[in-house]
Structures are given as structure tokens and as C-alpha cells.
UniProtKB/TrEMBL annotation:
Name this polypeptide is given: Beta-lactamase family protein
Domain Beta-lactamase-related: 39-396
Transmembrane intervals: none
Database matches in Gene3D superfamilies: DD-peptidase/beta-lactamase superfamily (3.40.710.10)
Lineage: Bacteria, Pseudomonadati, Pseudomonadota, Alphaproteobacteria, Hyphomicrobiales
InterPro entries: Beta-lactam-related (IPR001466), Beta-lactam/transpept-like (IPR012338), Diverse_Enzym_Activities (IPR050789)
Region of interest: Disordered: 1-25
Bias kind Polar residues: ranges: 1-14
Length: 408
């Protein structure tokens, strides 16, 4: 690192306080096995399957391992750093879901309230049924609720999770634009057909973007302002926001120009550009230590450093499976042996899944390779950050295997 780069990093050094650290063996982890974990990811870097990554393992309130591996940006020689800044994409969702539940705790609404109570356009939705290549619109059997949005049973979808006729409408729209507001996005999505009846299926979707708009309507503040005031500032997550400043240009983690597995061009949003839409489903940028503070709060049952963010029983509700037996789940995003709560996937079987874990473990990930999980039974959490597509599921499962192998 040259003097100019070092000075730039010093100027823009994170103000986020570090969590306490400890030697791995003092918190029930194996140094030898954690080193094997880092070595495995170094091999992936050497193979050219990922440019670089950070991996953090914490247990019993202390960080036992925090490694920065490979390059921060494959186009430069800068190494990955502990304070590199990442697009966390769908790891935004748990933060926004906690924000919604804080408003529930404040008494502004209940989970069974219809979304139309806050966004009137949702009162007139229809379900799109494919029939001989055409889309028949039928009435909803009931209105979409706040709980549906939290557990992805709303009937909303994403344009990239399939190519059905409803998803094609998403693809042809401006829903992915960062130049529309949250209000415009919510109105636009309310005008599109649902992919199924509310409550009938689990479909990963833009539901959390709509939750972000509900936060704005109820609080009277922008989503970013609300999250900062109620979650990010109290947790001292000083570098989590919907964009970062030009002063941090030398700290941005970037992907390969092309997917190393299929050759497709990789194009992620510009972290230095302030968007009009503050996407509750995937718009935040953050650092490993920032997100670690959020994870430690979750592992602590809703509190960190004396600041209670969410009630213990409310968090317990969020980290429980909310999918009834009749709810259809046919998505590769939902691992076997798991259900979905209010913002997180939740492990509900010891077996079935192709990786180790504990009953009650909850987690989620981002489309550029970021990932976290919370294991209350083991007093354990991990934060993994990378940028790029590649084999994300493979990386996540590899990480789980290696982390649990290090737990004594």
C-alpha cells in the first residue's frame, strides 16, 4: 500500500467501534481449523473463482477470527481489507425487517394489517394466471398483509427468479431503476399482477422494498433516515447506508468484470452514487464490522452495548418459521430442512440440509456473495463478504462446513 493510499484510508477510516476479540481457543474455536477455512478461500482466489473476501467468526460475544483474503478489486493490486466496503444487497432485508417490527412494537400497526392500509394501490390487485400463453387476471381471495411481505408469501416476485408471464412484466418495467422513488416503486409494483394468491406460496420477491415504503409512510421519514435513527446509529454502524462518499472510493470491493463460471458480464450498482430509490430489499452498502454489530445485537436477543433495538420476544417471533404446511415452496433459495420467518430463513430440522447447523439457526445472504448466519444454540455468528456472482451457494455451503468443523 503506497503512502497516498494509506493516507486516504486513514482519512476515511471507519468510526465503527470494533467488537471485542479473543484467541479462538478461549471461546471454543480451533485456530488450526479456522486457518483451514481461510486456506480454502485462498484456494478459490488462486483458482480465479472469486477476487477476494472477508470472513469473520464470532462466538460468546467475541471475534475469534477475522481474515481478509485476496484482492479488494480484481482490476487493481489493492488487497482485500478488514474495512473494505461491500454492496450487501439482500442482507439489507433483515435490517429493514427489524425496522418494520420496531414500528409494530411502537403500536403503529399489527402484522395482519393489509398493505393497502398504507399504500392504497394494493387494494385493487389481481392474480395473474397463465393460460395458453396469456395472462388471465382473477380477484385476490384476500389482501396482502404486512406479515405476507415479511415472510415472502405476498404473491410478489422478482424479475430474476424465473421467466413466467408475471416476471416478464417485471422485466419490462422500470422496477430495477435506482432513479425512481420508493413511493413510485410501490405504486408501480401494486399495479402488476401477483404471481399467486396471497399466502399460497413462498416466492422470493420485492416484498421488502414495499416494507421500506411502509416505513416511510408510517414514520414520515425517508427509509435511510429511519434506519439511521433507529438502528444504524444506536448500533454505531457508521458505514452502513444507501451509498458511500467519494472519500471512500479506495475502499470499495468490486467483482470480476465477467462471471468466472459462465462468462456473463457482471455489472453492479455504483456505491458512490446516491440513489433516488432507497431499496429496502437490496440497496445498502456496509462493512464486515458494521454488519457484525447488527449480528451481535441479534445474537444477544435484540440489544448491544446497553441499547435495546428490538424486544427479545419480538426477535424470537421473527426467527421462527412462519410457513404453514400448505404453503408451496419450490425455490433453490430455500435450503431443505428450513422454513422462513420474518426476514430470515430459519433451520427447523437437524438433518435434510446438505450442511451442518443447529435448530433455530437463522440467516440470509446477498446476491453478490455476502452472507451471515446466527446460531443461538452455539452463541455463534459469521459474516462473510465478497463481491461477484460465481457459485454463491457452493461458497456458502463450504463456509458452513468449515466454520462448524472449527467449533469445539
Amino acid at each position: 500500500m503506497n503512502a497516498q493510499t494509506a493516507a486516504a484510508r486513514q482519512t476515511s477510516a471507519p468510526r465503527t467501534p470494533a467488537l471485542p476479540d479473543a484467541k479462538p481457543e478461549t471461546i471454543g474455536l480451533s485456530t488450526v481449523r479456522l486457518q483451514r477455512m481461510s486456506d480454502a478461500f485462498k484456494r478459490e482466489v488462486d483458482r480465479g473463482t472469486l477476487p477476494g473476501a472477508t470472513v469473520m467468526v464470532a462466538r460468546r460475544g467475541q471475534i475469534g477470527w477475522f481474515d481478509a483474503i485476496g484482492r479488494q478489486n480484481p482490476a487493481t493490486s489493492a488487497p482485500m481489507a478488514h474495512d473494505s466496503i461491500f454492496r450487501i444487497f439482500s442482507m439489507t432485508k433483515p435490517i429493514v425487517s427489524v425496522g418494520i417490527m420496531m414500528l409494530v412494537e411502537d403500536g403503529h400497526f399489527i402484522l395482519g394489517d393489509p398493505v393497502a392500509k398504507f399504500i392504497p394501490e394494493f387494494a385493487d390487485q389481481k392474480v395473474g394466471i397463465e393460460n395458453n400463453g396469456k395472462l388471465d387476471l382473477v380477484p385476490v381471495m384476500r389482501l396482502v398483509t404486512v406479515q405476507d411481505l415479511l415472510r415472502h408469501t405476498s404473491g410478489l416476485t422478482y424479475d430474476h427468479t424465473g421467466n413466467g408471464l408475471v416476471q416478464q412484466l417485471y422485466q419490462q418495467s422500470r422496477l430495477r431503476s435506482r432513479k425512481i422513488t420508493n413511493a413510485e416503486h410501490a405504486t408501480m409494483i401494486a399495479g402488476m399482477p401477483l404471481i399467486c394468491q396471497p399466502g399460497a406460496e413462498w416466492n422470493y420477491s420485492r416484498s421488502t422494498d414495499v416494507l421500506g415504503r411502509i416505513i416511510e409512510v408510517v414514520s414520515g421519514k425517508s427509509l435511510g433516515a429511519f434506519l439511521t435513527e433507529r438502528i444504524l446509529a444506536p448500533l454505531q454502524m457508521a458505514e452502513t447506508a444507501f451509498h458511500t462518499s467519494e472519500a471512500n472510493a479506495g475502499r470499495l470491493a468490486e467483482p470480476f468484470a465477467h462471471d468466472p463460471w459462465n462468462g456473463d458480464k457482471v455489472q453492479l450498482f455504483n456505491m458512490l452514487e446516491k440513489p433516488a430509490m432507497e431499496s429496502g430489499g437490496g440497496g445498502l452498502v456496509s462493512t464486515s464490522m458494521d454488519y457484525a454489530r447488527f449480528c451481535q445485537m441479534l445474537l444477544n436477543g435484540g440489544t448491544l452495548d446497553g441499547n435495546r433495538i428490538i424486544g427479545r420476544k419480538t426477535l424470537e417471533l421473527m426467527a421462527s418459521d412462519h410457513l404453514a404446511p400448505h404453503v408451496k415452496v419450490s425455490s433453490p433459495l430455500m435450503p431443505p430442512g428450513h422454513g422462513f420467518g420474518l426476514g430470515f430463513a430459519v433451520r427447523n430440522q437437524r438433518g435434510i440440509a446438505p450442511f451442518p447447523g443447529s435448530l433455530g439457526q437463522f440467516f440470509w445472504s446477498g446476491m453478490a456473495g455476502t452472507f451471515f448466519f446466527i446460531d443461538p444454540a452455539e452463541e455463534l455468528f459469521i459474516v462473510f463478504m465478497m463481491q461477484g456472482p460465481g457459485q454463491r451457494e457452493y461458497i456458502r455451503n463450504l463456509l458452513r462446513n468449515l466454520v462448524y468443523a472449527a467449533v469445539e
